[in-house]
Amino acid sequence: MSDTRRRVKVYTLNEDRQWDDRGTGHVSSTFVERLKGISLLVRAESDGSLLLESKISPNTAYQKQQDTLIVWSEADNYDLALSFQEKAGCDEIWEKICQVQGKDPALDITQDPIDESEEDHFEEIPETTHLVELPPCELSRLEEIADLVTSVLSSPIRREKLALALMSEGYIKKLLGLFRVCEDLENREGLHHLYEIVRGVLFLNKAALFEIMFSDDCIMDVVGCLEYDPALVQPKRHREFLTKTAKFKEVIPITDSELRQKIHQTYRVQYIQDIILPTPSVFEENFLSTLTSFIYFNKVEIVSMLQEDEKFLTEVFAQLTDEATDSKRRELVNFVKEFCAFSQTLQPQNRDAFYKTLANLGILPALEIVMGMDDLQVRAAAIDIFSYLVEFSPSMVREFVMQEQQQTEDDVLLINVVIKQMICDSDPELGGAVQLMGLLRTLIDPENMLASSNKTEKTEFLSFFYKYCMHVLTAPLLANTAHDKISKDQPEESTKINPVCPDNFQTAQLLALILELLTFCVEHHTYHIKTYIMNKDLLRRVLVLMNSKHTFLALCALRFMRRIIGLKDEYYNRYIIKGNLFEPVINALLDNGTRYNLLNSAITELFEFIKVEDIKSLIAHIVDNFYKALESIEYVQTFKGLKGRYEQEKDRQSQKLNRYRRDARSLDEDEELWFNDDDDEEDGEAVERRMEDDFPDSYEKYIEAKKGAANGANGANGSKSATIPPASPAPPPNNSSSSSVKTVALPVTPVVKTALVGLVDYPDDEDEEEEDEEEEQAPRKRPRLSS
């Protein structure tokens, strides 16, 4: 059989009885050797991957609906649907299916196989009497009819025959006539039988029957039958709810009668499915798949009809942005929200056209207005609409806000309005803020900018965001960690960076959300966020929150620092060392005491990462400044491991220095005149002693100094330039507590630091080195670290 390709959409029915879009591709019918039969294959139009491979089995019932749909069920209650772009393609594939199954393509459904006993039974029936024989539609026969309908549900072929019988004889309307009679006579037994009959007819799962049952003149009687469940003592009052309680609101009058009828029908059928019918058991799930499809395609039709009515939508948006329509604005916003929700049923190309229509009508400027209103319901609906737009096309929203910036002030930019809504969320659980934070993350995610045809979108938008929006996002964080808000009762000698921490739970939650977004920026924005952190000294402000009584907030602050260190960027490392930013983390660890909790584990993991990744500059800084406070922690080997790494690096540098000293001398025989054997031993001891004295400052100096000495040794003046004593001894490094951290972070100039690696010892240095040792031994003013 030759391949026939047609553009289709593949859908599967999920556990919530909703159709999930599996992708767009081209369908073909071909023989698959592995499956041993003709199969339907759908390959994705984007990358050619296989979306569907389904063997056309003679035992499978296929249904053709609305000229462009083919629906069927496979094993394990797995429902599939192909939605064709063109009717011709649907007809061609349908003919292939019917050809394989030996069926007439004029039918809209193929028949399932039946067991041998049934087959033998039906072979005895003449061809002219292929329908199930229905009892006369009379009150006295209701029990017999109910038993018949219930009995056929287990057999696909008998369900099909019963459905044909019900349609051919106008039987449904006769049954509903009996319902009105039973209700007038208060015949409770008859009403219970009618409940079983109508429920069974719905479970026949036939679109043609649904068209009859859900028509305007039948649907309320169908609902009435379903009120009389035999399991209930008193019948439900579903009709009363649908006719009196549920009110159809027209924010703008709908003049199209067909559209009005379709909206009413969809609402009522949805009510039947969600409210009236019991949740189907595992064995009944497939019985209502066509009902779900019926609702689904009704919604598609409603959206299409509304979208085609340009005057209607234009009027909706005109009133939405009109200041004089305050009383109706809530209804207008709710209408647009429901309209967007219905649009999720559209196929991608149609959904694309739908959102472009909304964009052209001014949906984003309208949202900007309604988001700033005091009505909580209006704001909540506006946020839902905004989420539909962002999820569909983040690029469309980004393009709008960048164009908007050229015309309006920063405060009224759409993204800033969204950020302010997040910050000012009055919900104690911050439900709206969480939703908005997710939308902001989508907008600033570079991953969904890469596929854009506009190659500069990423650079332009991130530059725009950090220039015009980031200060609004971080304002609550900076305000709650400000240095000028230190409490008056805080002792001056306190070692906390800043005692100001939000005790309010809602504020703490908000700051946690902001930190989550900033952590995302650290991972994905590199240059922009790095510049912002440095300019605002943001990490220091964030680490103030390590003092918070809310552990989740302290963990968020720690996570922010962990992401920064995880980048292994020396630029960040120098910033951390220069600012002594490990101090609040170590204070938090010490304050936590011996409690084995999440905070303890997270802080330990941070130092474990530094040890495993061997980040030398941070290891040196931690061991030099904090090891005395940490050496007592023995329940993990992390801190002893850091010390071990430190000692290993120290030994390695020492060996390099000694090797360099020997190699440098061997370069020039004349240089031996400077030394004798005794001098060599003394010089070696001097180098070792000075290295031990100077190393606590940072062994990075030795690396740089060694490079400088090597350059000097290989220069035009020969190796003597590294060994000739200078006019005056080089001053020793300043190891005072106030500047020990800063000297690590400052750039080191090899030429200047060469004197630190002198190969001769000077008498003056001994006194200065002893002073250095005394300074180093003096404890820093950090009670919490020494305790």
From TrEMBL:
Q: Which Pfam families match?
A: EVH1_PP4R3, PP4R3
Q: Which GO terms describe its cellular component?
A: nucleoplasm; protein phosphatase 4 complex
An example Gene Ontology biological process: DNA damage response
Membrane-crossing segments per the record: none
* Location of the region described as Disordered in the Swiss-Prot/TrEMBL record: 671-695, 710-742, 757-787
Q: Which SUPFAM superfamilies match?
A: ARM repeat, PH domain-like
The biased composition feature labelled Low complexity covers 710-722
- Where would I find the PP4R3 EVH1-like domain in this sequence? 5-101
Q: Which UniProt keywords apply?
A: Coiled coil
Q: What does this protein do?
A: Regulatory subunit of serine/threonine-protein phosphatase 4.
UniProt record similarity statement: Belongs to the SMEK family.
The protein here is known as Serine/threonine-protein phosphatase 4 regulatory subunit 3
